[in-house]
Design goal:
By secondary structure, this protein is α/β, with parallel strands linked by helices. The chain is built from 12 helices and 8 strands.
Amino acid sequence: MASWLRHTAIKFPSHDALPSHDTSPLLDTTKTTMALPTPPASTTLSSTPFSPSATLKSRLRDGETLYGLFLCSFSPVIAEIVGHAGYDFIVVDMEHGYGGLSEALSCLHALAASQTPAIIRLPECSPMWVKKALDLGPQGLMFPMIHTPELARQAVSYCRYPRTGVRGVAHPIVRASKYGLDDGYLDRCEDELLIMCQVESEEAVEKIDEIVAVDGLDCIMIGPNDLGANMGFISDPEHKDVGQMVRVVESHVLDRRAESDRRPYLAGFAMPNDGPSELKKRGYDMVCGAVDIALFRDAVVEDVNKFKKIA
């Protein structure tokens, strides 16, 4: 970003300089330069009020198993409800969900009411999506379809400011830094961000040792549905061969984690034949149990069926 981020010089004519019946604009555009400031010391707040008492990464470091939900409806009302329900995190799903960045922002606002951490799943691994998503202020980013260590390294670099990465700089004006009022943002943002890469193909499974070794990668998320489709079981993600592939990824991640201070963490999505409690028993750090749309669908179908049976 250019120097417009650093200084503001919007100049207004003094009251005395204006004739009593002057109809000219109050703002002299010939003397105006558009720029964005670092807030003055008198309005700069400390970082403490903006930091949850425990971030997702700090809870994972402490050995907690976290339980979350995928939000695909992009309904702020549903986001607020699931936040108050007590989930440890909510994945705002921009890969398959029905919203863009503006709708994701509304969901993050709703989740803030319960201080529920948000993870944004991106549509794809690209620097444009990453910088826009990070500026919204989620605690984590989930990258789909990471098939190679090269892609994993790219994902990490998109999340880092220069010189260790390529993230664009606009921190004085984005929600992630409380629009520049959080003076500790730059010191914390990269350490607190949870970077998750999804393993969803046979190629990724074959290269899992190289992927988990990528510096800066925090968590491997196994995607059983896409993995099954990639293996030829699009209608049967619960096939035993898919389950065996999932176990291969699990063992490699858990072995690596044992050697490197619990990282990368292991995350997964519960399936009908492999529920949340089973994943927890096998050592998963993060478990996603459902999708908001599916929960609502099942509830309304059950409600209608109950009435039809009585009527």
